[in-house]
Design goal:
Layout lengths: L2 E8 L3 H13 L5 E4 L7 H9 L4 E2 L4 H4 L11 H6 L2 H10 L4 E3 L4 E4 L4 H15 L2 E3 L4 E6 L4 E5 L3 E9 L5 H9 L4 E7 L1 E4 L12 E8 L5 E8 L3 E3 L1 H9 L1 H6 L3 E7 L6 H14 L15 H10 L13 H12 L1 E6 L1 E3 L5 E6 L4 E2 L4 E2 L5 E3 L13 H18 L2
The structure holds flavin-adenine dinucleotide (FAD).
The site of flavin-adenine dinucleotide has 38 residues, from helix 1, helix 2, helix 7 and helix 13.
């Protein structure tokens, strides 16, 4: 026998719970169910942010916030003007969860535990009478004239409206494709680079501000670069991986990375700088102390890579040696050979084509009464709380449009 609901939310993750709760709060009379294929709900929330759940980011201007989204920047501008990071803080405060901001802008519950967020959501669904049905893996979707028919392994559900919050699940994307949606093929985003190079071999843990570029492409990013035992990581590299997700996938993650350890200093300016340093420190040994604002160990390695003995005096450096050093400093080329996952915190670029979603309502432009929230659409962000912010914002907008009818 089929069970009937006003709204079925497919997927018991962050986006699904937030949508269901906001719908029920706006209209307590609606009969709502969340269908989750797993035994547990909110499993990504549990492990998120290293078990602390990085709920959002302290970035309160919508036009600044969108810049953290390699996919979704244009489309999220309107939605963030309706529900942004400040609204997230206020929402959680209203539901008894206080958030705190860390130095880098990431926001966590003051408890430093994702369980606080899970408890908040579970309390809300219990209070609001939302049914959370686990072990209900959706197998097929069918849109009749004025209702949805949803088959799971255990039975059939009927609903007037359907919210898709199934994250990056290829099976659900196939079903959405059958309904007429274009699915942008999924590729990984947020990864670190595998590099085997004598210049960084013994420098694990060294971190420096750098500008990184993919040779022969427009991809470029700046920020702290961290040398790891497998290659390079850190915010600058992650940013490059996110914006380059599709391009680097197409290159099978084999490319040349150009590193400028002096950021906006170019080759010519670096030549001039080195000549000044040569005069000023004429009697000092080159390898003794880094004249730049990065760790000595890195400096020593770049000096060696330039073919200069660390004990050479600055005064004795030849023109060629100075040029070689300048090239290492502002245009060090490293062969990247593959990628590694960043702290297991991967996201997927890809999903429902954004052209087919009405961002004023989060309703499908292809199929009536079908709504989207979270990672199921082709939106993703860099690390820092932005992926959850997308889930919260989509959810609120979908809930508002469902309850305003
Ligand atoms: C380890 C890790 C840590 C992260 N940490 C952070 C962080 O701190 N901050 C941040 O902003 N982002 C973080 N992210 C990204 C963030 O977790 C996701 O962007 C977010 O969870 C997406 O929410 P969602 O509800 O769209 O999808 P999901 O959380 O993936 O939820 C989708 C749900 O749908 C269910 N489902 C799928 N198919 C079916 C089906 N056929 N039938 C029924 N149910 C189905 C799934 O089982 C799942 O429970 C992290 C990601 C990972 C992997």
């Amino acid at each position: 026998m089929s069970k009937s609901y006003d709204v079925i939310v497919a997927g018991g993750g962050a986006a699904g719970f937030f949508t269901a709760i906001n719908i029920a709060e706006a209209n307590p009379n609606l009969k709502i169910a969340i269908l989750e294929r797993g035994k547990e709900v909110l499993s990504k929330v549990r492990v998120s942010g290293g078990g602390r759940c990085n709920v959002t980011h302290a970035c309160f201007v919508p036009n600044d916030l969108v810049k953290f989204y390699p996919r979704g920047e244009k489309e999220l501008r309107g939605p963030f003007n309706r529900f942004s990071a400040g609204d997230t803080i206020e929402w959680f405060e209203r539901h008894g969860v206080e958030l705190k901001t860390e130095e880098d802008g990431r926001m966590f519950p003051v408890s430093d535990s994702s369980q606080t967020i899970i408890d908040c959501f579970i309390n809300a669904v219990n209070t609001l009478g939302i049914q959370v049905l686990t072990g209900e893996s959706i197998q097929s979707l069918y849109k009749a004239e004025n209702h949805w028919k949803i088959d799971t392994k255990n039975g059939t559900f009927i609903a007037a409206k359907l919210v898709m919050a199934t994250g990056s699940n290829p099976k659900m994307w196939d079903m959405l494709a059958e309904l007429g949606h274009t699915i942008v093929p999924p590729v990984p985003s947020l990864f670190t680079f595998n590099i085997k190079d004598p210049r960084i071999k013994d420098l694990m843990g060294v971190s420096a501000l750098a500008t990184v570029k993919v040779k022969n492409s427009k991809l470029e990013a700046s920020g702290p670069l961290l040398i790891t035992h497998w290659g390079m990581s850190g915010p600058g590299i992650l940013r490059l991986s996110a914006w380059g997700a599709r391009e680097l996938f197409a290159k099978s993650y084999q490319f040349v990375l150009q590193v400028n350890w002096l950021n906006d200093v170019d080759l010519e300016e670096c030549d001039v700088l080195l000549k000044e340093i040569k005069q000023e420190h004429a009697k000092k040994m080159v390898g003794k102390k880094s004249p730049f604002d990065f760790p000595n160990r890195l400096w020593e390695s770049l000096v060696t890579a330039s073919g200069i003995d660390a004990e050479t005096k600055w005064a004795d450096l030849t023109r060629n040696q100075l040029q070689a050093l300048a090239a290492q400093l502002v245009n060090g080329e490293f062969n990247v050979n593959g990628k590694s996952t960043f702290k297991e915190e991967f996201v997927t670029a890809g999903g429902v084509d954004l052209k087919e979603v009405n961002f004023k309502t989060m309703e499908s432009k292809r199929v009536e009464s079908l709504y989207f929230a979270g990672e199921v659409i082709n939106v993703d962000a860099i690390t820092g709380g932005f992926n959850f912010q997308n889930a919260w914002t989509d959810a609120v907008i979908a809930a508002e449009s469902i309850t305003s009818m």
